[in-house]
Amino acid sequence: MMPEQPQEHKILFTGTMGAGKTTAISAVSGIKMVKTEAANTDRALFNKATTTVGFDYGEVGLDGGHVLRLYGTPGQERFSFLWKIVARGAIGVIILVDNSRPDPFQDLALYLDNFKQFVAIGGVVIAVGRTESHQWPSVSDYCAYLEARDLMLPVFAVDVRQSEDVLMVLDVLFNMLEVSDAESA
Amino acid sequence: MRDLYISHVGLSDADLKRFKAVMIAIVSNRDVEARWCMGEATTANLVLVSPDSELTQQFIADPTRKPGQIIAAILGESDSVAFECEKLAWPLRLPGLIDLLKRVEQRIGSADGKTAPESPGISADNKLVQFAQLLRETTPGHKPTWCVSGLSERPVYVSLQDKTFIFEDSLLNLLQVDPNAALELQPISEDQLPEQGQRKPIRMLQWLIGLRSGRMGPLPWVKMDSTFRLRQFPEFQLLHHSSEHRRIAASLSRPRSGIQAIVDASELNAATVVGFLNAASLCGYLKISDAGVPVTAAVKKPSAGSRRGLFQVFRRALGIASNDA
Fold first, then answer.
1. Nearest CA-CA partner of B177 in B146, B207, B153, B203
2. I need a labelling partner for B322 at 20 to 30 A (CA). Which of A23, B15, B91, B148 fits?
3. Distances B280 to B17, B103, B252, B293 between C-alpha atoms, Å
């Protein structure tokens, strides 16, 4: 009898540079993360020494040799051509928003537009970071913004350094996808 | 996991205190299969009684008691009892009560509570409901500060103006509040608040009171046939919650017509759904409308294409707790 082929499943972490994609994947990855970083040449705009130039990769081993792959997209918009490529075959997207940026709503809009196929099936969860130091917009402001766009998506204030926050976000994503599966039956 | 209800009649203050402490330990340690909650005596599945109390005799003779209800008498060595009942040795001890709860679970069988409550909701006269109404108060202007006694051994201080509360005990005790508790709601001034007490966001209190009241039924403003939808997901990092609450929240990302539709969509126990709705309404997460909102039809069973099994595999691998078998 032929052995069952290992199955692979993919979840994306996306968001602006510095939003915490690399940190979020590290918090839950079962393997040492593969990071594709280079020196950041945009220090005037983003005070980070390095930035992701390919995509971050982590994985979680599943029963039977199957794998859940976690991909972090490069944050800078000039790498957006990679987003569609990485998104192929993904089951859902976590959008990380940095609340310390000048216009977080504009940032969010960019990712909602670029990942609209996931928005349409409810396969998106929005995780807002740095809310302790930057209280505006609040989570309810984000929800009001989404409602104005006729959307209802889960929004949480998170600290991606805390694995329980990242796991909570992932679990909510799974629940949203289960609801979507049931509705599309 | 099904919900079963326990209550008490005629117990002395000392026995009641011991009973509550033992129940908190059982619930915290998950020593039994069902989720046991404090209920009203006439409708509870199991009622603990003191054999020599007049209240017990009146209760035993009450024709409105739930059919099939199990009575357990707490008996000292020389005590006897004239009615048919289970027996628990006095003083009440943890192993004895765990054994009793397990026997009751087996006797009651597999009632799954998957039908939304038929009653219109908890009476507005109920003190817990009045407290919930107070927590929901949103009229503009200065809001008072309250000292609430009777929820637990220690009072709860609520500052509606600041949207904070002070409670110097375990918050989980609030999930075991006796629905018959004689609560006292006393307005106080801000300078009467305890100096040392840590102020917590009022949403934590609203949430717990909402969950607790769910065992009794929908709060008066949560109507059986309203349309429900979340305006915001609950702040799960802050609030005591279970994996079931996340599932209910996901099902409420779309409008649902009536409580039964949510029970069907989430495939969960009605009391759990009602508790969530009560809690979410108190915290302001829930949009409730009466009619005319387009809704998604509820689906009673997962489709053949459902990936629930796959997501359970993900959860296990990630170490995310789930109540699914």
1. B153
2. A23
3. 30, 35, 11, 19
Task: Note whether residue A1 is domain-resident.
Answer: no
Cα B276 to Cα A141: distance, rounded to the nearest angstrom: 23
Q: Would you call B186 helix, strand, or coil by DSSP?
A: strand
Q: Do B253 and A153 touch (CB under 8 A)?
A: yes
Whether residue A24 contacts residue A98, with contact meaning beta carbons closer than 8 Å, is answered with no
Chain B residues within 8 A of A182 when measuring between CB atoms: 265, 299, 302-303, 306
Q: Which two tokens stand for residue B152?
A: 């637990």
Residue type, B199: R
**What one-letter code names the amino acid at B319?**
G
Residue A71 counted as domain residue: yes
- Tokens found for residue A57: 């990769």
E strand residue ranges, chain B: 3-9, 35-38, 46-49, 70-75, 86-89, 145-149, 156-159, 164-166, 184-188, 200-201, 227-230, 256-257, 286-289
How many independent structural domains does chain A possess? Answer: 1
Is the domain spanning B3-108 CATH 2.60.40.10? The answer is no
- Residue A115: CB atoms within 10 A of its CB come to 22
DSSP string, A20-75: SHHHHHHHH-SSPPB--EEE-S-TTT---SEEESS-EEEEEE-GGG-EEEEEE---
Counting beta carbons within 10 angstroms of the beta carbon of residue B191, is it exposed (0 to 12), middle (13 to 18) or buried (19 or more)?
A: exposed
Asked whether the predicted pLDDT for residue B233 surpasses 90, the reply is: yes
> Residue A3: inside a domain, yes or no?
no
**Given the structure tokens 């330990």, which residue do they identify?**
B25
Nearest C-alpha in A relative to B232: A143
Q: What is the pLDDT of residues B72-122, one digit of tens each?
A: 999 988 888 878 888 899 999 988 999 899 888 877 754 455 556 544 457
The answer to whether the CB of B165 falls within 8 A of the CB of B158 is yes
pLDDT of res. A164 = 93
Asked if B138 has any chain A CB less than 8 Å from its own CB, the reply is no
Residue A28 structural domain: 8-183
Q: Phi and psi at residue B106, in whole multiples of 5°?
A: -70, -40
Q: Is residue A85 part of a domain?
A: yes
Q: Does B320 touch chain A (CB under 8 A)?
A: yes
Domain of A111, CATH number, reads 3.40.50.300
Q: What is the mean pLDDT of residues A36-57?
A: 66
Tell me the mean pLDDT in the region B254-258. 92
Give the chain B residue whose CA is nearest to the CA of A185: B303
